[in-house]
Design a protein that fits this description.
Structural class: alpha+beta
Order of helices and strands: HEEHHEEHEEEHEHEEEEHEHEHEHEEH
Helix content: 25-40%
Distance between the termini: 51 Å
Shape: elongated
Strand content: 15-25%
Largest sheet: 9 strands, mixed
């Protein structure tokens, strides 16, 4: 049997704990910020009928960048390359039951068959934020303000990015109003870019993109715009809508470029080291009490040398260790040690739990 390659499929990523920690951090900031603006989370399957993209997503996406295939029922299906058509389908499907204006967000897994490069992969996650049912420019202003708030929530400063904005309408008055409102709210890192063109064919009005100003990463971080007629694809009447998408790949590049990535911290609070295999059952009882108190505990059941077990805890970046031997079990007095400082705290199990909390 030939040896299999350990690399993932081209253009996708494996998430080791340190990578998943950053991914969770990104999702956490996204969710926390959009919820402040009154948006509710939704989701859908990664599989869609291919025809949903053929009308409005743009020829390049449909013909060159989708993972499309025939299913066993001879139906044309596609791994979703974007979320907006799916959201429009869902809104059109239950329009009479929904209450407008509608504020939805999602963090879908998206797939595009393109040449992998910095900022672009074949699979990524993307924050999608959409408002339905507001025709005036306040919806556009709110979405751009929200996008601005998201970057600031990650620690970015206005000089770290530029908001490029334009409109697809001949009348430039939607655009003037939007910029004026943004300026009044303190957002002034804006530039009109008449060459700005979002890749999708469904945009109808104001479009915008946030660009990194660092020369090492001169890329778009997020983008979106107004799309007032997309629900008509599903036999529904036109419905005013505006939204944006922010990909995790470009955002992580932005955070890395500006030194804004968080330091990895494992979810495990404590590494317990039994000194002898004959004590395993009694140690398990202590560990159970710690976990019942909400402490994240990893136990080394390997019976390796004490020094090797301490090195393992340090390599895993678990901040504290608790060595449990026969004396600790007899006296019910334990020594909690912080690996970074060497500081030791002695006490009963309840006192150790209090110290950990």
């Amino acid at each position: 049997m030939s040896k299999l390659d350990t690399a993932p499929y081209k253009g996708v990523r494996d998430f080791y704990p340190e990578d998943q920690f950053i991914q969770n951090y990104i999702f956490q900031i996204w969710r926390k910020t959009v919820r402040k603006y009154g948006f509710e989370e939704m989701d859908a399957s990664i599989l869609e009928y291919s025809e949903i993209y053929k009308e409005k997503s743009g020829e390049e996406i449909v013909n060159e960048q989708t993972f499309s295939f025939k299913d066993r029922g001879d139906r044309d299906v596609t791994l979703r390359p974007e979320m907006t058509p799916t959201v429009a389908r869902m809104v059109a499907g239950k329009r009479r039951e929904l209450r407008f204006p509608l504020r939805w967000y999602s963090i879908p897994n998206l797939f595009r068959y393109e040449a992998p490069q910095r900022g672009r992969l074949r699979e990524h996650w993307q924050l999608n934020v959409d408002t339905f049912g507001i025709a005036n420019t306040m919806a556009d202003v709110e979405l751009i303000t929200l996008a601005d708030s998201i970057l600031k929530a990650f620690g970015a400063k206005p000089e770290d990015y530029e908001i490029r904005i334009s409109t697809l309408r001949e009348d430039k008055g939607d655009l003037t109003n939007v910029i004026a409102s943004l300026n009044k709210s303190g957002i002034k890192n804006i530039r009109i870019d008449e060459n700005l063109a979002r890749g999708q064919a469904y945009y109808t009005g104001v479009v915008f993109e946030f660009f990194d100003t660092n020369k090492e990463n001169p890329r778009s971080i997020l983008g979106g715009g107004r799309y007032d007629n997309l629900t008509a694809l599903f036999g529904d009447s036109d419905l005013p809508a505006v939204g944006f998408g922010a990909g995790d790949v470009t955002l992580r590049d932005f955070l890395e470029t500006h030194g804004l990535l968080p330091e990895y911290k494992p979810a495990t609070h404590l590494y317990v080291i039994p000194t002898d295999p004959t004590l395993f059952e009694k140690v398990a009882g202590v560990v159970s009490s710690l976990r019942d108190a909400g402490i994240g505990v990893a136990v080394d059941w390997t019976d390796r040398r004490l020094g090797d077990q301490i090195k393992a805890a340090d390599k895993l970046k678990i901040p504290r260790i608790l060595i449990i031997g026969e004396d600790e079990l007899k006296t019910s007095i334990f020594a909690l040690k912080e690996l970074a400082s060497g500081k030791e705290t002695r006490g009963t199990l309840d006192e150790i739990i209090s110290a950990l909390k």
